[in-house]
Amino acid sequence: MTATNLRDRVAVPAAARPRPFWTIPRRDALVGYLLISPQLAGSALFVLLPLGLVVYYSLQEWNVLAGTFDFVGGENYAKLLADPNMGQVLASTALFSAGLVVLNLALALLLAVLLNQRLAGTTFFRTLFFSPVLVSLVAWTIVWQFLLQQDGGVNGLLDVAGVEGPNWLRGEGTALLSVVVVQVVKNVGLNMVLFLAALQGVPRQLYEAAQLDGAGAWTRFLRVTVPLISPTILLTSIITVVGSLQVFAQIAVLTQGGPGMSTTVLVYYLYQQAFQFRHLGYGATLSVLLFLIVAALTLLQWRLRRKWVFHES
Amino acid sequence: MSRRVKLALYALLCVLCVPFVFPTWWMVTSSVKPISDIFAFPPALVPSRFDFSTYGRVFELQPFGQQYLNSLYIAAVVTAGTMAVAAMAGYAFARVRFPGQNVLFLVVLVGLLIPSEVTIVPLFQMFHAAGLTDTHWPLILVPVLGAPSVLATFIMRQFFITLPGELEEAARVDGLGRFGTFCRVALPLARPAIGAVAIFTFLHSWNLYLEPIVFLSTPSKFTLPQALTQFVDAYGSPLWNVQLSAATMTALPILVVFVLAQRQFIEGLAHTGLKG
């Protein structure tokens, strides 16, 4: 609003004289266009153009090894529907994302609530829980790869407790779980920090009032804390869901999609098809599928926000 | 809080810490352990003696110094570039009025919906056609101008929206133009937001893995994450001791910077989440 007032005040005397071409609104517009031009050009060249191209490529049969590039219409999409691996890939992707999101948000919230208590040393613990976020991703993954081996550190610890651990990364049932846990421990610190910031914004009087009304700790958490931090829960869940669909390095390093295809999530399958088997057309088709899933999930969560987000700042 | 509750909370925190702290501890200590210690079962927490020889082998097996430099300079250029592009666009979308503003903002926002994995196939073809595969250009241009910088632009916009309008009015009365107001008034005030953008852009670039393995094929051009997976013997099995030394060198500098500046780090990131 103040910008308009300012414009009026400066522009009025100018109108009395012959109007110069470079009025303030025009100059503003020019500066605006100049300032956004790098980002806009980048979006056109590196976002919109490739997005159009990926759709176009998905209509081609394109094999780099054979050097063929032919228009085939919906054939790649028919192939997608008939792909015997697709069921497994989508199931792994869904399981992975669901496991990751649930574990990540639950653990992040638990840690944030613990660290929000009036305890000495919470900064120290906050630092410790946050530190894996900063360890380079592949370095972190390599260490866990070693720890999760048959005779690695995790089983060493279990051995001390008298339990014989499985070969985590080679077992059909445990590989996916292992990748999820490695990823959660790596990144949960980010969500924890966001939750901590949100918790610190909840007014203490509300807890005191609830306590006077006889609400126990659990009721206070469900009735006061959760509604008040629900915008943050929405934000973190969107970030985490979209992030979970992008997980690639961990799987490439830890399991290469195995054993069988139990950890072959969509992005990894896309990489294999496009860059290992060089089926670029089919890879593009898988990219379109990935885009549709991400877009649908984001929009769905955005829609749901009215239902469960208590207030929006 | 009673003492008993406090003790229980501390115990819980200590147990929960283990998976967060142990891997890093193990990585750093193992990098100076003799190989026999690395495979000791159960694992030794402290090295029985110090052996720094694997640090030398890291540099013998690969052009690791060059790869380190690649990662550092790429991350630095990407961070500086993203800060500039995002601050400019964020400011314009928040505070300058120009025709088509809302539509253009929506066009840019599409980038938020698109994980870079979706566009990797056409981007590879585009850079291939331009003769820029196996160079660092794709690793710099795409993050600075493409989808990854859109989040930064969004965060900057959210920040600039909160600036009081009187400041700009005062600047204008003092004779500053739009551009001058941006550089001399808005930008200095945006330091917390710019800091947050810098941190997560640097980390993002430092961790990038899919793009380097798709675009680069010459070992001397590799970045660190890609280089880390190359320390294998003739049969493809990892050389654990060498790999852990290389991993330590990759991870430790960032951790040290973090410990020194952890307040700004965490608050910067929390701030981003709230405003974004």
UniProtKB/TrEMBL annotation, chain A:
Pfam families linked: BPD_transp_1
Keywords (A to Z) from UniProt: Cell membrane, Membrane, Sugar transport, Transmembrane, Transmembrane helix, Transport
Membrane topology: Multi-pass membrane protein
Protein name stated in the entry: Multiple sugar transport system permease protein
GO cellular component, one term: plasma membrane
Domain of life: Bacteria
InterPro entries xrefs: ABC_transporter_permease, MetI-like, MetI-like_sf
The ABC transmembrane type-1 domain, residue ranges: 90-301
Major localisation: membrane
Stored PANTHER family: ABC TRANSPORTER PERMEASE PROTEIN, DIACETYLCHITOBIOSE UPTAKE SYSTEM PERMEASE PROTEIN NGCF
Transmembrane region(s): 30-59, 89-115, 127-147, 175-199, 220-242, 248-271, 283-304
Family the entry assigns: Belongs to the binding-protein-dependent transport system permease family.
Gene Ontology annotations of biological process type: transmembrane transport
Cellular location(s): Cell membrane
TrEMBL record, chain B:
Sequence intervals crossing the membrane: 7-28, 72-94, 103-124, 136-160, 181-203, 240-261
Its membrane topology: Multi-pass membrane protein
Family annotation (Gene3D superfamilies): MetI-like
Pfam families assigned: BPD_transp_1 (PF00528)
Main location: membrane
Top-level taxon: Bacteria
UniProt-listed SUPFAM superfamilies: MetI-like (SSF161098)
Entry keyword set: Cell membrane, Membrane, Sugar transport, Transmembrane, Transmembrane helix, Transport
GO BP, one annotated term: transmembrane transport
Record-annotated ABC transmembrane type-1 domain positions: 68-261
One Gene Ontology cellular component annotation held by this UniProt entry: plasma membrane
Localization (cell): Cell membrane
PANTHER family to which the protein is assigned, alphabetical: ABC TRANSPORTER PERMEASE PROTEIN MG189-RELATED, ABC TRANSPORTER PERMEASE PROTEIN MG189-RELATED-RELATED
Family from the record: Belongs to the binding-protein-dependent transport system permease family.
Name of the protein in question: Multiple sugar transport system permease protein
